[in-house]
Amino acid sequence: MCDVGEFLGFDPFACEEDERDAQSDGEDYDDPRALSPKQLGRRGEEAACALLRRKGYVILERNWTCPAGEADIIALDDGCIVFVEVKTRAGIERGLPEEAVTAQKRARYERIAGFFLSQYDGPGARVRFDVIGVLALPRRRALARHLVNAFATGD
């Protein structure tokens, strides 16, 4: 199941912290290609969180790190713990953002999930791996594709 091409018609990138950052580092919000990869990734994660919240997910963690690596978003969806990899691009010349989730990245997410679950003592026994591809557009807009249950363990 996936939500294909959901246009985030609101400003998913707006928050007070981002406004301060923009004033201090001169980011050009009208052209996502002017952002550094780190800035672009942060904007994509903001858009992904906004999309998930709008769908009723509860964000448990952002940029959660462990010895296996970092999970962009860990959320709760109707009793299911969801590990979300977010890929953001400013154009599709190199393919769609979600196409950048490799077998190596999927295996790393499985290891990350193992670390998280060994420490987690909240609700939710089921686990799912989602991918959100974000295409940053001019005028602070985004096009997001949410791939629900994008891969299973062992893929």
TrEMBL record:
Q: Record's InterPro entries? A: Restrct_endonuc-II-like (IPR011335), tRNA_endonuc-like_dom_sf (IPR011856), UPF0102_YraN-like (IPR003509)
Biased-composition ranges for Acidic residues? 17-30
Chain spans, region Disordered = 17-37
For molecular function, the Gene Ontology terms on record are: nucleic acid binding
> From what superkingdom does this record's organism come?
Bacteria
The family assignment reads: Belongs to the UPF0102 family.
The identity of this protein, by name, is: UPF0102 protein DMP06_04320
Query: In which organism is this protein found?
Result: Slackia equolifaciens
Q: What is the lineage of its organism?
A: Bacteria, Bacillati, Actinomycetota, Coriobacteriia, Eggerthellales
